[in-house]
Amino acid sequence: MDEVKVAVLGASGWMGRVHTMAYQTFPHFFGTGGGTARVVALVGGKSAALEDLAFRAPGAKILQTWQEAVADPDVDLIDICLPDNLHYEVAKAALLAGKHVFCEKPLADTAAQARELADIAGSKGLITRVGHAFPRNPVHDRAKEIIEAGEIGEIKLFKGCQHVDMYGDPLAPYMWRANGDLAPTGIVGDTGSHVFSFMEFLVGKVSTLIADNYIVTHKRPVVEGAELGAGTTLTGDEDWADITNPDGSNVLCNFASGARGMVDFSRVATGRKFMQTYEIYGTRGSLSYTYDEVNRLRFYSNDDPIGRRGYREIDVGPEHQTYGAFLPLPNFALGYNESKIIEVAEVIRSIVTKTPMWPTFETGHHICQIVDACMESSRLKRWVDIP
Ligand SMILES: NC(=O)c1ccc[n+]([C@@H]2O[C@H](COP(=O)([O-])OP(=O)(O)OC[C@H]3O[C@@H](n4cnc5c(N)ncnc54)[C@H](O)[C@@H]3O)[C@@H](O)[C@H]2O)c1
Questions:
Q1: pTM (2 d.p.)
Q2: Which CATH architecture has domain 135-336+365-385?
Q3: Ligand 1 site-directed mutation target among 47, 82, 340, most atoms within 8 Å of CB
């Protein structure tokens, strides 16, 4: 049995906790044939939270800096769950130190940085992965099968969106996600990149786009220790910080295949706790998905007889290997954390079998190209080509 030794960076944050859980959980569902993982080091965050995590990852060292983890000869895989602006620097150092890297999205602040990371990984033969876990819910494997079998014909139009309301309230506190230094591409890299990952997975490469990025609320109160999504009562004594990256964007794009795309995403959609949808229209049929019914795909086919046509609901169930790994019965939905467990199982299998699996840093590079193009297009107010 191959064991991969992992250091989780940003361990006490949201993703750090989810990834730490997933390394220890996946063999319960996927067995040990694809290797196992041991979390040997945790880096960063509040000490109390880290001590608590150390209890959940028995034997893991608590390190003070990411540099210590990268230099640690006992670590095979560096798992980056840090704020966006650190991804490039840390991933580069880790790859140069000969470590495999699993990096949360967005892979880097720019496509040029992402390209450099993919090239270093390629030249060193290291396994890479970007944290686009949503398309790894098995319902999207079904969508891909239907598309690849030609059942919806030639794709003409992709419509996708992702909206949350974390900044719907103009008084919601400032956080690193709204700081253009710590998250240079704002919602475009944060949430847009998830929609772009579906586009990459199901439709293919984007060749040109025009984007209109916007900021709705330009200043927010600074509340020390405010947690994402937690309610806060303002005292009136707060400092106010400028919001220096986009709150939302509307994007039109063309795919290399000739298909068209319409995409919108934001963090200001009041009442939308998590809205994620796509619709894919082809010459013979179409597909439709919403996160509100996370294991369900709607499929329309022109091949159905006239008078019987309509969207049929396809619920992914235990006949799909990945669903069946978790649940023996249909209709017990797989949710967000299961997608992350699937993702981590694939990361470990990738390393143990030396087989890159989607989405690698090559995919991350193309998604960063789309993000770059959105930033440039919105600044220049015109269409931008993606090489
Ligand atoms: N794939 C997804 O669905 C998904 C969801 C949420 C976040 N993310 C991504 O994951 C990353 C982390 O987001 P999060 O929500 O977990 O953030 P978070 O704020 O909850 O956690 C970030 C962690 O990094 C630590 N940290 C910050 N600077 C550090 C430094 N210099 N050295 C060491 N530790 C440091 C913080 O203390 C904290 O523990 C982001 O890039 C985000 O875009 C992905």
A1: 0.95
A2: 2-Layer Sandwich (3.30)
A3: 82
